[in-house]
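User: I want to check something. If I give you two sequences, will you return the structure for each one separately, not as a complex?

Assistant: Yes, each is folded on its own. Here is the first sequence with its structure:
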Amino acid sequence: MNIGNRLRKARERKGISQLEVSKRININNKTLSRYENGNSEPDYNSLKSLAELYEVGIAYFFSENKNEEYDLKELLKDKKVTWGEEDLNAEDKQRLIEIIDILVMHK
């Protein structure tokens, strides 16, 4: 995923339009569109402003990780999970899943 795709994805996650972004960080809407389409790249100050607005670190835009989205429930089930120095067994992980489920479903 290139910088433009990550910029678009971060903006969409925040649920704001290109026009709103351009107003909030004071850049031209066409410039933002060129960034998101990969036709140009933002300078450091623009990238910093975008990262702050989207509430991500600047490194997010350059990450090589192709799997940046994870289903926490699946991670807890399928991966070795630790709490500090302690490994969580299957029963501990299931309880953790149930607790998180309660918290997420009862916002």
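And separately, the second sequence with its own structure:
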Amino acid sequence: MQLRAPAILVATRPHGETAVVARFLTAEYGLVAAYVAGGRGRSLRPVLIPGNGVEVQVSARSDSQLPFAKVELQASRAPFLAEPLAAAAIGWITALTATALPERQPYPSLHTALGALLDAICLAPSARGWAGALVAYEMLLLRELGYGGQGQRPEGDLPEILAAMDALAQPLDHYLLADRRAGVMAARERLRELLQRMVE
């Protein structure tokens, strides 16, 4: 296995003393997990932040071996993680993507939509500019994985968007996150609480 592609980093997990196992979403190869040597070191720690856009080079001697990856930063989301609402949104959508998608199955529309959503979260002046897109991404994820997700991006005021978000909670939990890490839905609940404060 040899590949080089632009990717969105969606998850990292410590491995040993200094390395990480990272999961990357690529348009052509889908979700790819790989070992990054020195991933917790000073030079790579700012690169390996979920939400970052990267160029990843992955290689493995066999399909049964965890591939090794070399990573170059293309777009950093790190400056926006200091803002609680943006951090909660980025944390939720990257965790959802990493948890729900099967590995090495391409979903180019999800890759494109996730990149656009991350840009919107970081560049919009407020959550009103991206909350509808976040719900639309959840719908697209459900649809791409064969679980419905019908409907259009919710438009209108934030209360209407929150109502659409509430309607998706059960399908996401039941179809995509059942028997998975409980903390993933907790990240969505935290985001929902922060968005609600904007209405009150």
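Because they were folded independently, the notes below concern the second chain alone. Helices lie at 84-100, 108-123, 131-144, 158-176, 182-199. The chain has five helices and five strands.
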